[in-house]
Amino acid sequence: MSAEYKIAETEQFQSKLKDRQFSHLQKKLTDYVYPILKKNPFFGPNIKKLKGEFDGLYRYRIGK
Fold first, then answer.
1. CA 29, 35, 39: angle at the middle one, nearest 5?
2. Among candidates 11, 15, 39, 37, which has minimal Cα distance to 26?
3. Are 47 and 33 in contact (CB under 8 A)?
4. Residue 14 C-beta-side C-alpha neighbours within 13 Å
5. Residue 41 maps to a domain
6. Considering the entire predicted model, what is its pTM?
C-alpha cells in the first residue's frame, strides 16, 4: 500500500512541545508514534476516523 498522507499538528500541540514540561512528548513521537503511523496510519487503539466537517481525516490521541 503506497497511500500518501500528511500529519498535521494543532498550534496548541506545537506550543506544548516547546514547553519544557512536555519535552518527553517529542521522544514519544519519535520513538513510538511516528513508527506506528508509518506502518498503518488508519488503524490502532489511539487512531479514530473523524466525522462531520473532518470526514476523511483521522486523529491520533496522545495522552490520557
1. 145
2. 15
3. no
4. 5
5. yes
6. 0.66
What tens digit of pLDDT does each residue of 33-55 get?
Answer: 889 888 888 888 899 999 999 99
In a domain, 31, yes or no: yes
Residue 22, classified by CB atoms within 10 Å of its CB into exposed (0-12), middle (13-18) or buried (19+), is middle
Q: What angle is formed at CA 20 by the lines to CA 29 and CA 60, rounded to 5 degrees? A: 25
C-alpha cell at 15: 506550543
Tally of domains in the chain: 1
**Does any domain span residue 3?**
no
Query: Which of these, 11, 62, 12, 63, lies nearest to 37 by C-alpha position?
Result: 62
34 in a domain, yes or no? yes
Residue 38's domain comprises 11-60
